[in-house]
């Protein structure tokens, strides 16, 4: 964004303002300040960009203060969508961080499509802002002494958790949507607890820094700063936090250019991502997330997360001998595909959305789940446990809430867009429920157990 190397001449150091006095124990902090590690004292003077300062840091921080809580809250909503009270949200055991036991709604039908798409897309869009904010404060990493009081130690610890938390969440999230599990630990557990650590650190950091952030933003109008060209870009007045370079060099870009660079990169990442949450020609633009792109043409040419081969589904499993078993207590009914096709059909246009952020809107035809429940004598089931032909895996079975079973558009789908399901799309039958996470829209259904108790 600007020159950080020492120019050959013309060095005019800025005079730093008075630093706060040492807190208790003052003698200890002074002794620490007097004995820095070799080379540390001269490092901050090598960061010479005149763009760095409280204003730029505060502006980028405010963008993150708006965006990152949205990413966190949509992540919590997605966790609720998986039905934690049935033990099928991951991680299962979260202790006192357990969310309230609420039924995930089925309306609007696009609810999960929006929350998960926003969670993934906004997280990716904010990556350049996070990097820009870290660039703006990097000289503080080399300040000596690292703290001047016990209170500042606590602030630095919160900052460490804040920076570490957001980098950890972004890195693991980006790897997860690419199925690149390089970290050797359970993604769901780490991502869930990591999000809470980040939010706790964010609350502490905002409480400690809000006054200075607000003052920095008000120190110069945004509209006026966006009109300043590179030639007129000068350092901000020296600040107590040491963000302003003590010996600034000439600007190579203006603050307007720096914000345009960060904003442009964010828009580019958004443009290369958002197509996975849209249908039609936009899906071809999802270059960063190829699993969300259109894999083919025709009525069944939309994405799948897990193919029949990957799930171990064979032609013998789904052939003429396939049967669907319906249960309700001691009652049991067995149906073949011909019997299902003979039942009253229902067609609904519903989205299906997956945890990687991709989603698609398709027209599904099948038998209402509530009609299947009535067939086995469960007129008002409290839940329905669905089992797949898939052998093993986290999502070989799923439990549906009462409102999901009773929704008039909740289907055991037999066809999509007017044609028979393909093996990859769940032939001979799959679950489709409004606003339900895609992994719980179980494919290759073998059994549905309608339960009338909790």
TrEMBL record:
Protein's recorded name: Molybdopterin-dependent oxidoreductase
CDD domains, A to Z: SO_family_Moco
Alphabetical keyword list: Membrane, Transmembrane, Transmembrane helix
Native species: Micromonospora mangrovi
Domain Oxidoreductase molybdopterin-binding, chain residue ranges per copy: 320-453
Keyword Transmembrane helix in annotation: yes
Region of interest (Disordered), ranges: 227-248
Residue runs in coiled coils: none
Signal peptide: none
InterPro entries: Mopterin_OxRdtase_euk, OxRdtase_Mopterin-bd_dom, OxRdtase_Mopterin-bd_sf
TM region(s), chain numbering: 55-77, 117-138, 159-181, 193-211, 258-278
